[in-house]
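check this one:
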Amino acid sequence: MPGMKTLLEYCTAHREEMVRTIEALARLESPSTDKAAVDRCGVEIAARLRALGAHVELLSGRDRGDHIAASWTGRGRPVLILGHFDTVWPVGTLTSMPVRRDGERLHGPGVFDMKAGIALALTAVEALIENRVDRPAIRMLWTTDEEIGSGTSRAAIEAAARESRAVFVLEPALPGGALKTARKGCGEYELVVDGVAAHAGLDPGKGISAIHELADQIGAIEALGDPSTGITVNVGIVDGGSRANVVAARARAVIDARALTLADANRLDAALRGLQPRRSGARLTVTGGFERPPLERSSEVVRLLGIAREVSSALGRTLDEGTAGGGSDGNFTAAVGVPTLDGLGAIGDGAHAAHEHVMIPDLPWRAALLAGLLTRA
């Protein structure tokens, strides 16, 4: 493939620059719920985008950090590069989890999920610009609340996707560098059970235990799961009652629900909302729903994967695919009908964990892979 060797050589020559970018962004701690901290990181990202000649717009928010939209002119409809710079790590994490190199690994809060992805994207675009490679118009959208559900960014994500020919998501790769061609849809529900309080010793028969009812409902909820089709349900929080000697009047459970297809997500949603009391007089209230629709492995996703494999082969690498149990903002772009390829970010391990790291030697070919994809999307 003409030009791929040149792009790889450029990205390899700028490997240390990528590492320094990741280090700089990781040291700017950016937990989703701390707007001031997130915006400090955003200022750095915006400055680096402007240095590459991008038109940069800040999408300001009152309670969450400002999202960053950037664009470069080119031929035809744009390709959207999508990711986030908020993390799960609170300010102060650097004290116990400093940014550091350990051989071929770069450690630090947020390096894998997903500040390395931002560095890869910047380098890929720089490689195209500096080598005067023909390319489509390019847009980037870096958001600040992905880790807490994308409540303030979803509309901007979907709007940007609808204007784009394809979306490349710079979330971390699967082990070995595999891309994510499917992601489960993610939902959260709350089940509240209302019973009738009574004295557990004097008048137990006059009560209706919300806790006992909830215990039966948990069994029914567990039965809705079907791992063979990717449907999973997990009751992760349970609470209720007031005293040991009182028949509980209220109890609640919080449920995580996931499915690989929209059809299965809809069926699971209907089943949860259709739960019926087992005890006469008990009442059930179900709220919540699927926050992220599934990213399904459509024919258009497979087409993008084929292009990625051609580019990867020209770089001397094989490229696998896989399914992720967690969601990303790519779920939203796929759901509005725009071809989406996810997991184009760094190779590493430990997202949301103390051993979070990226593999430094893999950074150049991942940047070159994205650059090549941008020329052919």
In short: The mean pLDDT is 97. The chain has two domains: 4-183+295-376, 185-292. Residues 60 and 184 are 30 Å apart (CA to CA).
